[in-house]
C-alpha cells in the first residue's frame, strides 16, 4: 500500500514525531510509506535515518508550492493520502484531485483555534477524519463530518533508556535522593511553562525539594529563563536542557512527569512518561483525562493555577509510595490500552476500508 503522510513542517514536536514513527512502522510492515512536508526542520534527518522517503516542497508562496505538489503526486501515485492537522489538508485534497486517492485527516488537537479552517468543499472530499481523543472529536463539527469522524487513540512503544538512572543524574549533577520532575514539550504559549515555573517558586518558598528538568526549546525559552531568574530559581530547582534526543534516559532519571498545558489533543509525551512508570501531574484539558485518571495515574489540576499545581507536585514530592503506585498503574494502562501496535493496526484497517469502498464504487 502506497501511503503519503502530509505535514506542514518537520520541526520538533509531538505530532511531527508521531508522523515519522507511524510512517516508519508502516514501512516495516511492507507498505510504501513516505512523508511530504511543506517546510523542513530537524526531524527531516531523523526520518531519512529511518529509511523514510521525505519530500520538502518549500517555497515562500502557494504559487510555487502547488505545482511542486502536483508533480509529486503525479510521480508517486499514492493509494492513501494522510494529512495531519488542518494546516496540511489543502494539499491532501490537491493530491486527491490529482490521483484520486482516498484522503484521511488526523486532528491531533493542535491549533484547534487555527485560522486555517477547511472549506465545506474540502471536508466533502475528505474520506475520513480521525480525532486522537474523544475530547478532540467533541470539538469538531459532527453535523458536517457525520460518520466520517472517528477516534483512534495515539499509541507509544516503550523506548528503553541507553544509560542508567545513576549515570544521567551524575551528568546533570542531581543527587540520588533528590525528587526530580520532568516536562518534555516545546516552550511556547500553550504548554504551561509559565504556570509551572511560578509553581516551582511556590514550592521553593514552602521548602519543598523538587528539581525540574525542562526538555525542549522554543520561542518562549528566554522569557521562561528570565522568569526563573526573577524567582531566584537555580540549578537545585530547574534545569533548562533544550532539545534532547535522549528523552528515554531523562524519563528513567525522573520521578514524576508534569504537563500543565492550556490545550491538548492526546499528548504523546504523557503516554511516553506513563510507559516509563512515571506518575503525571497535568491539566484536565483535551484528551489528558482520557489518559490520566485522577488519583489512579496521577493528579489533574486547573489551567493556569500555579497554587493547585504546586500543591499537587508537593504531595508527590512528599509521598514516594504514591509515586510508585501511580506510576505502576500508569505503565500497566499504556501497555494494555495505548500500544503503538494497536494504533498502527487501527490505521491500517481504516485505509483498507477506504480502499475497499473506493473499489466497490468502481
Describe the fold and architecture.
The strands form 2 sheets. The chain has a 7-stranded parallel sheet, sandwiched between helices. Strands 10-9-8-11-12-13 form a 6-stranded parallel sheet, sandwiched between helices. The radius of gyration is 21 Å and the shape is elongated. With 362 residues, the protein is of the alpha/beta class. 45% of the residues lie in helices and 17% in strands. It has 2 domains: 2-155 and 339-360, Rossmann fold (3-Layer(aba) Sandwich), CATH 3.40.50; 165-338, Glycogen Phosphorylase B (Rossmann fold), CATH 3.40.50.2000. InterPro entries: Glyco_trans_1, Glyco_trans_4-like_N, Glycosyltransferase_grp1. GO terms for molecular function: hexosyltransferase activity. Residues 167-332 form the Glycosyl transferase family domain. Keywords: Transferase.
Amino acid at each position: 500500500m502506497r501511503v503519503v503522510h502530509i505535514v506542514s513542517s518537520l520541526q520538533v514536536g509531538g505530532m511531527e514525531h508521531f508522523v515519522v514513527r507511524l510512517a516508519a512502522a508502516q514501512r516495516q510492515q511492507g507498505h510504501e510509506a513516505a512523508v511530504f512536508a511543506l517546510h523542513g526542520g530537524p526531524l527531516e534527518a531523523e526520518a531519512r535515518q529511518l529509511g523514510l522517503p521525505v519530500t520538502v516542497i518549500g517555497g515562500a508562496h502557494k504559487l510555487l508550492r502547488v505545482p511542486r505538489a502536483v508533480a509529486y503526486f503525479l510521480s508517486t501515485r499514492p493509494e492513501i493520502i494522510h494529512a495531519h492537522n488542518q494546516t496540511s489538508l489543502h494539499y491532501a485534497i490537491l493530491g486527491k484531485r490529482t490521483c484520486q486517492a482516498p484522503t484521511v485527516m488526523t486532528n491531533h488537537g493542535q491549533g484547534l483555534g487555527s485560522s486555517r479552517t477547511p472549506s465545506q468543499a474540502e471536508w466533502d472530499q475528505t474520506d475520513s477524519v480521525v480525532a486522537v481523543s474523544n475530547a478532540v472529536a467533541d470539538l469538531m463539527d459532527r453535523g458536517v463530518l457525520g460518520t466520517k469522524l472517528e477516534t483512534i487513540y495515539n499509541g507509544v512503544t516503550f523506548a528503553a533508556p541507553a544509560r542508567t538512572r545513576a549515570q544521567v543524574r551524575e551528568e546533570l549533577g542531581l543527587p540520588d535522593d533528590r525528587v526530580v520532575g520532568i516536562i518534555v514539550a516545546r516552550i511556547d504559549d500553550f504548554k504551561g511553562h509559565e504556570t509551572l515555573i511560578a509553581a516551582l517558586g511556590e514550592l521553593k518558598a514552602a521548602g519543598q525539594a523538587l528539581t525540574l528538568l525542562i526538555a525542549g526549546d522554543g520561542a518562549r525559552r528566554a522569557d521562561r529563563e528570565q522568569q526563573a531568574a526573577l524567582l531566584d530559581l537555580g540549578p537545585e530547582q530547574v534545569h533548562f536542557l533544550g532539545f534532547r534526543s535522549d528523552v528515554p534516559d531523562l524519563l528513567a532519571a525522573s520521578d514524576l512527569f508534569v504537563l500543565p498545558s492550556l490545550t491538548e489533543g492526546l499528548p504523546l509525551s504523557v503516554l511516553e512518561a506513563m510507559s516509563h512508570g512515571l506518575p503525571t501531574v497535568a491539566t484536565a484539558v483535551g484528551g489528558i483525562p482520557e489518559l490520566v485518571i485522577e488519583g489512579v495515574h496521577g493528579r489533574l489540576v486547573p489551567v493556569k493555577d500555579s497554587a493547585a499545581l504546586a500543591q499537587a507536585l508537593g504531595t508527590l514530592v512528599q509521598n514516594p509510595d504514591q509515586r510508585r503506585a501511580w506510576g505502576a498503574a500508569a505503565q500497566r494502562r499504556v501497555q494494555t490500552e495505548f500500544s503503538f501496535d494497536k494504533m498502527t493496526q487501527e490505521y491500517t484497517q481504516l485505509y483498507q476500508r477506504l480502499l475497499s469502498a473506493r473499489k466497490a464504487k468502481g
